[in-house]
Amino acid sequence: MIAQVIVDVAAYPVDRPFDYAVPDEWQALVEAGCRVKVPFGPRNVLGFITALKEETDVPQGKLKPLSQLLDIEPVLTGEMLQLAQWMTKQTLCFEIDALQVMLPSALRAKYEKTIHLTGKLDELPAELQNLFGNKSSIPYKKVEVAGLLKSLKYSIGQGIVQIKTVVKQQGQVKAVRKLKILDDEVKLQQIAADIPKRAKKQVIVAEWMVDHKGAIFTPEELCQTLDITTAVLNALIEKGAATYIQEEVYRDPFTKNAVKTKPLALTDEQEVALQQILTAMKSELPTTFLLHGITGSGKTEVYLQAIQSALEKGKEAIVLVPEISLTPQMSERFRSRFGELVAVLHSGLSKGEKYDEWRKIQRGEVKVVVGARSAVFAPFTNVGLFILDEEHESTYKQEDSPRYHARDVAIWRSEFHQCPVILGSATPSLESFARAKKQVYTLLTLKKRAMQQSLPTVEIIDMREQLKNGNRSMFSEELAEAIRIRLEKKEQMVLFLNRRGFSSFVLCRDCGTVVQCKNCDISMTYHRSQEKLKCHYCGYEEQVPHECPECQSEHIRFFGTGTQKVESEIYKFFPEARVLRMDVDTTRQKGSHERILDAFGRGEADILLGTQMIAKGLDFPNITLVGVLSADTSLNLPDFRAAERTFQLLTQVSGRAGRHDKPGEVFIQTYTPEHYAIELSKEQDYEPFYVQEMQMRQRFAYPPYYYVVLIQVTHEDVLMAAEYAGKAVDWLRMQLSQNVGIIGPTAASISRVQNRYRYQCLIKYKKEPNLTAILQQLIRMYRTDWVKKGIQLTVDLDPSSI
Ligand code: ADP
Ligand code: ZN
Ligand code: ZN
């Protein structure tokens, strides 16, 4: 028997399977989809069996046997193997990358050895105990470096530790120990009473524990939450108030308070949408629906009832959300409806936790998966429905190889399973809406808010006027007044600082002019080191002007503020305000999103201040004001989607206000109130924006009228990067037809990352049948030759940002 194996050797220029002989003793065990180890050159590498066959062209003497069988049950289904082949063609990636991305990272290959504690820690020689600390596994390297291999060998002989060399499978052993608070109120109270009064901290913690009896936390979480040192915590552990546990229970942050909900009586609009979905489901047609519903129109309830119907048919459902740790409220709604049938996959889970969830899916213990992008690969075998909520979000596109879009994968899988896909959004991507207009997708529309509330009123504030009237602060008079009123009425508000990426631009504070490229209609990017403005599409550059080219004002300068600065401004203007800040700095800790949102939900703050993170998914009844401090930042990104992103963001944040009985009010501050993306966000009406933006896209030949491909070339040496980007462009010009536009090469908008210089070029085309083949040839040239010179080349078909 011959196994056809895709090997994990990404540097190899040719991407194809290799044949290996299956040793007799494994013939009954191997299946396509199993992981194996195979000899490849001088090494043993990981591979996936993609097919089994009887014959091979490899001559007898040259055929090598599999060296190790890692699974006796396949980790990938036949569907996944087919999907991987499709992704390889679709995204021009290595097949191995496509296979790997479908598996939880705990199952992915890493050739590091790890040492696992199998016996008791205190049986180990002291020097090894130190290395372990409180971990249950450590890298082999650590022991090697410490020169303790002899002790290690001895301990292995004693059966206290084991080496795992196969792959790093953190999935099976929990790396973190947790603390379980005693589940006995009386005893806890006893412990609290026995603590000497001068140990104040201990007393407070002990009393807190009474209220949290039986709860499980990591030691770090406890110390953070209670603001105590480990010494205090250890004292309580010694007294028996909490004990360390090996966290074998499936941890899940969202079930804690899930209250069971029942299906709501649908509005007429919801009912019409649902019925169409159910009809498609019944007739087993792989229809793609675009559910376009304004914020608060009850899209989620439609998802929930469609899922329910799939479950009743004995099928499964996969729900994708843009970034689930940012939207705990969303996953809770699925949990509340379907309870234990739901698995939640999100980036906040450790590798091991993700692996647990994945196993539940694989074993069929759950029927619904809610997760971010990669959950689209959930290994269900009888899917009845795919859902992408907020389908316009760029996080659905993976930025590294394989550069797949979750929407495309969901649609592919829906054809395999003969089931519908729902793409939901208040502000669909232009591509999707255009497809719906052409009836490639079926459009479903919700025009009214589900609970009859009206959309919040939106006021656009011209910050140029504020400056003219002598107000140099970041709050317009109108917004400041609105904040004051909310503070008095004890209502809550969200202040949104629009910040994205590293991009910076130069803006005139008198007239709002941002210098644009003459050729591309894209904002020029400011380069501080050279005091220059550059266009990252076509390479055009000019000096930073000292006065505004439009109005000659001198108030033209670099634009951008951080959340911290805003926070201190708020305290300056409104000393009585209580502010919760949510940005990358305050959310580094696992679970901190939920903590901040929970606190806000409990009314512990008046103002939630944040970046993009707070734009989505919040549903709090007491929010009556949303303030957007600077609408311009995303508008001036050097990206052809800048206007679309801005409109989406403004509509999303505005949608946070007045979702329940209290009416909402929104203030959008801007230096360019006349820009259509801002003007039209006032009405929160998608279609007029769509019409305008489509005209722009047509005029400048961008998607969805044209397809774009982004090619990036990087090297440590700037000249090499430029030279090879040039070579790529010259070569492409020769190969591609006249109708294809090739722009560049130019330095990328973030021109250096991790000491590698980045150059890029953009291909625009409408129809180019040979494009894939030509790009594959370019990639082959790169892999066989350029890579040796330290070049890295990436090809991104349909990039989500540029
Ligand atoms: P969307 O996802 O479209 O922004 P949601 O699903 O969050 O909207 O719904 C907004 C609010 O309306 C939620 O509080 C939800 O519980 C409520 N809601 C949705 N559908 C109904 C309905 N049919 N009857 C009553 N309330 C509803
Ligand atoms: Zn000006
Ligand atoms: Zn340009």
Automatic annotation (TrEMBL):
Q: How is the cofactor bound?
A: Binds 2 zinc ions per subunit.
Q: Would the keyword Isomerase turn up in this protein's UniProt record?
A: yes
Catalyzes what?
Couples ATP hydrolysis with the unwinding of duplex DNA by translocating in the 3'-5' direction; ATP + H2O = ADP + phosphate + H(+)
| Residues binding Zn(2+) 2, per UniProt | 517, 520, 535, 538
The cross-references to Gene3D superfamilies, in alphabetical order and at most eight, read: P-loop containing nucleotide triphosphate hydrolases (3.40.50.300), PriA, 3(prime) DNA-binding domain (3.40.1440.60)
Cellular component, GO, one term: primosome complex
Helicase C-terminal domain span: 543-697
Q: What is its EC number?
A: 5.6.2.4
GO biological process per UniProt: DNA recombination; DNA replication initiation; DNA replication, synthesis of primer; double-strand break repair
GO MF annotation, one: ATP binding
Cofactors, names only: Zn(2+)
Keywords for the protein's UniProt record, in alphabetical order: ATP-binding, DNA replication, DNA-binding, Helicase, Hydrolase, Isomerase, Metal-binding, Nucleotide-binding, Primosome, Zinc
Q: Which residues take part in binding Zn(2+) 1?
A: 508, 511, 548, 551
Chain ranges of the Helicase ATP-binding domain: 280-446
What Pfam family is a match, any one? PriA_3primeBD
Question: Which PROSITE patterns is this protein grouped with?
Answer: HELICASE_ATP_BIND_1 (PS51192), HELICASE_CTER (PS51194)
Recorded hits in SMART domains, A to Z, give: DEXDc (SM00487), HELICc (SM00490)
What role does it play? Initiates the restart of stalled replication forks, which reloads the replicative helicase on sites other than the origin of replication. Recognizes and binds to abandoned replication forks and remodels them to uncover a helicase loading site. Promotes assembly of the primosome at these replication forks.
Q: Which HAMAP family match?
A: PriA
Q: Tell me its family.
A: Belongs to the helicase family. PriA subfamily.
Q: What is this protein called?
A: Replication restart protein PriA
Q: Which organism is it from?
A: Viridibacillus arvi
Q: Point out the gene that encodes the protein.
A: priA
